[in-house]
Amino acid sequence: MMKILVVDDQSDARLIQKKILQQRNFDVLEAENGQQALLLIAGNRPDLIISDIMMPEMDGFELCKHLKSDAQTAEIPFIFYSAHFVDNQDIALGKGLKAAGFLVKPMQSKQFLESIERVINSTETLKDRLPEQKDKRLSDQAFDSEHKKRLLSTLQNKIEKIEQSEKRFKHVIQSIPSAVYEADAISLERFYYCDVVYDLTGKTRDDLNQHRPHWFELIQSDYRQNIKDSLIKHIKGNKDQFILEYPLIHENGDRLIWVEDRGGIERDASGQTVKLYGAVSDISLRKQAEQKLQESFEATITSVSKALEKRDPYTAGHQDNCALIAKAIAEEMQLDGEFIKGLELAAKVHDIGKIYLPAEILNKPVKLSPAERGLIETHSQVGYEIIQHVQFPWPIAEIILQHHERIDGSGYPNGLKGDNILLEAKILSVADIIDAMASDRPYRKSLGLEVAMEELNKNKSTLYDAEIADVCLSLYQQQRIPFLLN
Asked: What is the pLDDT of residues 186-199, one digit of tens each?
């Protein structure tokens, strides 16, 4: 079986050539560079060599020259197979080294095999038909001179291509309406590639390049530490991307610029962070629109809440009270600001479903019958159906639906248990029961805040989430439950 040595520093290139050659039952040997090829040839002489040119340690030209200079290996057919050295001068240098062929990557497998077999057949024919000819190899001096020329020419071409790529990259970056950057993984200091950063911060090129304030110093102080902590958390975690939103302090001091910081984290093979890359975009207009939309949401919810309380004067203020208690609990639990905002708004309309109930039942001064109680219990589902098609940025409808569910599944309307209940609904259910027990109702006077706390302590982990109940009990002990202590 004919042995063919494939020399290429790219493992995938060697694998492709090997698979193609094995289709013709050639025995394929592999080497990563010229030096490795020489060691392999010394102990396992191939019948033909296919070599790349640009390789570390010893390139293809040097390998060919070395082999053709040695009488024991000079007759081995040598084929260059390269994607970089492909002009006429490169081919001439290959011929001067007595190479049997010069192929240009990439080639279709059929074409590649035909070229190899043509060299093999041609070599066998020459051996059979032609007398030994005088060696016309390049002299060492001529080879060294031409070899250096070709290496310098290829290097120059690569440099020109890199410079062209850098120019194109710069044009692309400058056309993007975002400040593109890279950041050090340890100090988190940033280097910005384009001028957009000057518009975002109001600082001049000299301000940023000479004084080099740390990026976090430019973030509004209320957000600075949270943003830094969040970024460090992403770096230490296993995620490779992050999206942060925060306001920058503009140089003129009279406005904040809201930005979206969207980036990626480069890690090495061991998982250690190497660099951060990203782009900072101005989202001030979007934030203004979101603020107006949120104000519209809040105004709508306030109007609905007031309309309901006009029909049910005995529970006037109940929803606002629940919102205050729920907010206090959520803040004590250090939950996200957007989460708290959604919870607060849901609390303000959590009984909206009662708008469909007869006023005489809502205001009945005696205890309700089982049938009337069953009708009252429909208000969660009705409230959900009223709100579900309103496009809030929070799960308002689901919170309304679940605010009478209980941890053990004894609640209504769906008998949900434990983790199947939204955290917002768990918090609201605690706030709801406290205000209901501590306030006057149509059929009874207030039971008092202390009784409400006893109920909470007694049934935590059964009816109410234990962590939420403990937070509320702690607030009571510290006299920090809103409005009820007045």
From this structure: 888 888 777 778 78
**DSSP labels, 37-100:** HHHHHHHS--SEEEE-SS-SSS-HHHHHHHHHHSTTTTTS-EEEEESS--SHHHHHHHHHTT-S
Interatomic CA distance for residues 60 and 94, integer angstroms: 10
Q: What are phi and psi of 76, to 5 degrees?
A: -70, 120
State which of 42-46, 96-100, 320-324, 421-425 shows the largest mean pLDDT. 421-425
3 state SS of 485: coil
> What's the rounded Cα separation, in Å, for the pair 110 and 237?
49
Distance CA 465, CA 408 (A): 10
Q: Are residues 234 and 242 in contact, defined by beta-carbon separation less than 8 angstroms?
A: yes
CB 81 within 8 A of CB 111: no
Rounded Cα gap, residues 258 and 222, in angstroms: 13
- For the chain, domains (ranges, CATH) are 3-155 (3.40.50.2300), 176-282 (3.30.450.20), 287-477 (1.10.3210.10)
H or E segment at 175? Answer: helix 140-175
**Rounded to 5°, angle at Cα 344 from 340 and 348:** 170
Token digits of residue 331: 């803040």
pLDDT score recorded for residue 215:
83
Q: What is the token pair recorded at 477?
A: 């002990």
Roughly what angle, to the nearest 10 degrees, separates helices 466-477 and 449-459? 150
Strand order in the sheet with 256-267: 190-192, 178-184, 273-282, 256-267, 241-249
List the structure tokens of 108: 């279709």
Q: Find the angle CA(457)-CA(460)-CA(464) to the nearest 5 degrees.
A: 125
Per the document, the length of the chain is 486
Per-position DSSP letters for 277-339, written without gaps between them = EEEEEE-HHHHHHHHHHHHHHHHHHHHHHHHHHHH-GGGTTHHHHHHHHHHHHHHHTT--HHH
Per-residue pLDDT tens digits for 357-366 = 888 888 888 8
In this structure, are residues 40 and 31 in contact, taking their beta carbons and an 8 Å threshold?
Answer: yes
108-111: long-range contacts, CB 8 A cutoff, minimum separation 24: 109/20, 109/23
* Greatest alpha-carbon span in the chain: 124
- The predicted pLDDT at position 268 comes to 87
